[in-house]
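Try it yourself: sequence plus iron/sulfur cluster, in.
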Amino acid sequence: MAEDKKKVGPLDSAVMTAEGLTFKGIIMTPVVENCTGCERITLVEGLSYCPTYAEPSKKWTRGICNFATHVKGTLDKQGKTKVNPLKASKRAARGR
Ligand code: SF4
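Structure, out:
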């Protein structure tokens, strides 16, 4: 006998209201341009939302979103990759 197992999406219980998409009492805002390519993006009624953060734009104000699946590492204000100085000195001491 085959069981009917329906896969539950992360925002399946979200409800579209006049204020916007509401999930567990929080109003969700659509993803921003920086999120393009992230595997966490979930489509709800034709719009893209992040099930991890209600306001994706705030996750990009201080650098790269730490839960982004399409971008790795951290960038400084000039857009250069940040290197942990302690790790860099250990690496240099080992000759790598
Ligand atoms: S995890 Fe970060 S990058 Fe991915 S959709 Fe959410 S806010 Fe955007």
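One thing you can check immediately is this: The two ends are 59 Å apart (CA to CA).
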